[in-house]
Please model this.
Amino acid sequence: MTRMAMARSTTLAASFDEVAESYDHAYHEEIARALVAWVAPGTDGAVADAACGAGAVARHVARNRRATARPVLAVDLSPGMIAVGRARATALEAAIEWRVGDAVPLPVADHSLDAVFCASSLHFLGRRALADWRRALRPGGRVGFTLPLATHFRPAARISELLAPDVPLPRSTRDADELVAAAGFTEADSRVLAIGARQAVLTSATNPRGSGSLPRPVG
Model:
């Protein structure tokens, strides 16, 4: 990771540490519930929740897993968010593996995951995350992510400064489909979810079968 990328990660972590306790958990619970239902990851595959925040997706996946399934991997660079996630998931302690660290690259072997989720975070991670998800997913594995709809996103100035410049927020489901297709995924399918006055695009796609070894993302 470059010095600039390390500095950005440190700033991101500090920013989300500050809001960990006051984060809009109710909104993100709704996002997670809808995203997991949209992707339908099954009950025993290997799953990661990338840039998990307080782990809303990880918890929704973990509640529907077989007892013999490996723990859901939940990764976030904010120790504060991970701490809140652990506290909110005490009943699922054995079903989630919490990690503090950068979500790109995911700390997994190549082609070892059946599903990768990323709720409300791709616009901070950048396109390098899409490349890493293709590396981490087995051929035929599924990805599911959400992005705020551009017309309904009003971030604070400090958050705006942390957005990845190479992930334009979608203005439609077509924009989201084209973003994931450009990264090499197939079967892209998106829908708009409205929660009060806020709207997000939910996208699912497939890592194509026959995917060979892929380069790791740079930065």
